[in-house]
Amino acid sequence: MPETPRILVHAPNWVGDHAMAFPFYAALRDLFPKSEILLVGRAWIADLNPHGFSDIIPFRGKLLPVEESARIRAQKFDIGFTLSPSFRSAWFLRGLGINKRHGFVSDMRGMLLTQPKNKFKRQTYNRGEHRTLAYLRLLNPYLQPGTVPEDLFEKYRNVKLHTLPVQPLEKKFNLRRVGERVIVCPGSTAASKKYPTGHFMRVIERVAQFKPKTQFILLGAAIDQSECDTIAAHFKASKINIVSLCAQTTLREAHTLIGWSKAAIANDSGLAHITSLTGTKLVTFNGMGRREETSPLTRYKDLFDLGLECSPCFERECPRKDQPLACLTGIAPDAVADSILKSLGSKIV
């Protein structure tokens, strides 16, 4: 192993997982301060690039272009990490001719990775601990004696991504600042993660009741358009200042708008985890997932979790027929609104 090895990292496939990997990126950079570190992954990673990486190469679809793969192979990287649990990502590292390949033992891909002989040191993807800690455990072979991944978790869990200047975005989207700004993210990738749209409306109404000058900005991807449109239409004739930028911002722009806001309310989604990369207060929910593994890292959060007997179910659609989505519908909108109001410095009556 050279003194300054060349390192390649295959980023996770999901926005939220990528955000949870920022402590890994920061720890890796500190472990190898002089090394060239290349990050590859889905196209959107170039928009949320961690500090200290020499280059970022996005995939075309799910793979690198052939000419790009050939160029990387010729550079002869010494160490490869895959933060994705997929078979394809491990095969990708092996195809590049990287000798030391680290990742999670899943999807029958153990033979493609460099595994220690001690079977008890194999790193599995989900083991009841936070995913960020699981990522950090991949660094075990390179830690100094006496250092454990739990130390790295505490040291790097609060790592941030600097925001862009907000004024150009305010001009671009014609955002007139008249009071405090609150970000609302009503979408998610699964129905079982979505706080009811009607509850979001009630939250906005209560916050506006105590803080009438608050500006609410709806953010989300194209798949969240329905929820954002429904909320925007509901308040169209009201005096509440609400602006929908759903599917109009890049991830970096969304990160900046969140970072320059007082609070963000979001479902279990990529935008909730992006909020962790800012110092903004986050109000979020847990329903079908296991909070111990995937709750947003930020210390500035209120996480509503009813802890029902049926949770976590890990189902994309709620399996309950008696009380569909009870884990989320049972969370009182007024309690959620009061959490936001506290971050706005409001005295609640």
* Overall mean pLDDT: 92
Please identify which CATH superfamily of the largest domain we are dealing with: Glycogen Phosphorylase B
Give the name of the CATH architecture of the largest domain.
Answer: 3-Layer(aba) Sandwich
Instruction: Count helical runs.
Output: 14
How many domains in all?
2
What does the radius of gyration come to? 21 Å
Give a nutshell description of this structure.
With 349 residues, the chain is α/β, with parallel strands linked by helices. It contains 14 helices and eleven strands.
Description of the structure:
Strand 9, helix 11 and strand 10 (281-285) form a beta-alpha-beta unit. The mean pLDDT is 92. The protein has 14 helices and 11 strands. The strands form 2 sheets. The protein has a 6-stranded parallel sheet with strand order 8-7-6-9-10-11. It has a 5-stranded parallel sheet with strand order 3-2-1-4-5, covered by helices on one side. It folds into 2 domains: 7-156, Rossmann fold (3-Layer(aba) Sandwich), CATH 3.40.50.2000; 167-343, Glycogen Phosphorylase B (Rossmann fold). The chain is globular and about 65 Å long. Helix 5 (131-137) crosses helix 6 (149-156). It has 349 residues and is of the alpha/beta class. The chain has helices at 15-20, 22-31, 66-75, 87-95, 131-137, 149-156, 167-172, 197-210, 225-234, 251-259, 270-275, 291-294, 326-329, 333-343; strands at residues 7-10, 37-41, 55-58, 79-82, 100-102, 181-185, 215-218, 241-244, 263-266, 281-285, 301-304. Helix content is 33%, strand content 13%.
